[in-house]
Amino acid sequence: MVHVVFDTRELYFLTQYLPVWRELARRGVEASFVAYHNRPQAQEAMRRAFEAARLPVTWCATKEDGLAHYRHLAPDWVVFGNGYAHTDQLLERTRTAMLYHGIGMKSDVYAPQLVEHDVRFVEGPHYVRLLGEMYPRAALVAVGYAKTDPLFWPEERRPRFDLAAAGLDPARPTLLYAPTHSPSSFALMSEDFPAHFEGWNVLVKPHYLSWFSSSRRSHRRLMELWSGAPNCHVAPLEQFDPVPFMAVADLLVSDASSVLFEFAATGKPVVWCDFLALPWYRRGLFGHRLRKRMDASIDAYRDVAAHAGRYADLRATVADELAHPELHSAARRRATEQLIGPTDGRVSERIVDWLLAHVGTTTRQRTPSG
Questions:
Q1: Rounded distance between C-alpha atoms, residue 256 and residue 109, angstroms
Q2: Which residues partner with 201 through β-bridges?
Q3: Percent of the chain scored above 90 by pLDDT?
Q4: Of 319, 307, 321, which Cα lies nearest the Cα of 275?
Q5: Class of the 3-152+345-357 domain?
Q6: Is it true that the peptide bond before 112 is cis, omega within 30 degrees of 0?
Q7: Backbone angle region of 58, left / alpha / beta, with phi > 0 → left and psi within -120 to 50 → alpha
Q8: What pLDDT, in 10s, does the model give residues 285-327?
Q9: Which of 52, 58, 168, 362 could form an S-S bond across to 201 if both were Cys, CB 3.0 to 4.6 Å?
Q10: Tell me, what's the pLDDT at 280?
Q11: What are the residue boundaries of the structural domains of the chain, listed by start?
Q12: Percent helix, strand and coil across the chain, each rounded to 5?
């Protein structure tokens, strides 16, 4: 029997993996997960998430322990969401696939270690073209973006956050604020953000990494303040998946995050915060470090959203965009076609089709750019 394992270094990798795992399960294919002893707070959240979804998981202390597990288990496929340094030490029968955990914004989406696999599943034509030019020997298969599949399933199957159960009013318009962790608008948001959107439901979906490190204390302080507002729900760490929040939101506010394009694929309006709290090592004389971190090719899709240059502009920008959702609709469609790819809800089916058709075959290149 075919066995597929998902290497889950971080909890948010599950947003890409779960639609594929469900499709494997639907077809009766054995599939399991490997997770790692991480930060204590993160590990507990991961345990709860795996238990809630009833996922078969093996816990490993280190990547080296994970490698030993893979060599003992000898699965047909290991699916990764980020780079992995030990592909050449896996057994000959075990193939590897890259299902990268995000799109857009960061230049690390083009890192060479992400194509040193038997296959890299790729989203839209934008990435197919650029990755193909950079790594002509890489095995790239265009399928779309698995994370967004549930947004395009039949209405009765779509995961939706329960506004009423969270004490919010489903009859009100709903705003989703889902920033990235760095560079982020989070620290420049007002302490009174929910109050400034009185009459709205305000959903806050922090990035997973906003929960950790001393440099993001300001994020956590605002989370605590906002969670006391009657019109606001701040997603706890274990609510790692933004898709149920995207499904019920009428409008998204975000910043340098792939969620901008994920949400735009639904056809609903987006507001892009251009005000970012930058650490000292990425501003002024060190601005080149930020430019190196970001994907300049995404600038071509900045028209996907209305832009707020300051927090003070946010309320008016949101109101205008909600009143005129057609203003950026053509740009949203173009960005979706180029970055996300097909939005038919069947990306996971295409991935599983490919995995099952290529058991035992390999195209792995250790030097794909050579």
A1: 14
A2: 174
A3: 76
A4: 307
A5: alpha beta
A6: no
A7: beta
A8: 545 565 666 688 889 999 999 999 999 999 999 999 999 999 9
A9: 168
A10: 45
A11: 3-152+345-357, 155-340
A12: 45, 15, 40
Query: What is the number of other CB atoms lying within 10 angstroms of the CB of residue 288?
Result: 9
- Which DSSP symbol is given to 337? I
Tell me which of 3.20.20.100, 1.10.40.30, 3.40.50.2000, 3.40.1170.60 is the CATH number of domain 155-340. Answer: 3.40.50.2000
Q: Of all helices (H) and strands (E), which one includes residue 285?
A: none
Q: What angle (nearest 5°) sits at the alpha carbon of residue 169, between those of residues 165 and 172?
A: 145
Is the pLDDT at 175 greater than 80? The verdict is: yes
For residues 284 and 184, what is the distance between their CA atoms, to the nearest angstrom?
17
Question: What does the block give as tokens for 152?
Answer: 């395009």
pLDDT band at 214 (very low <50, low <70, confident <90, very high): confident
DSSP β-bridge partners for residue 287:
none
Please tell me the pTM assigned to this model: 0.93
Same fold, 3-152+345-357 and 155-340: yes
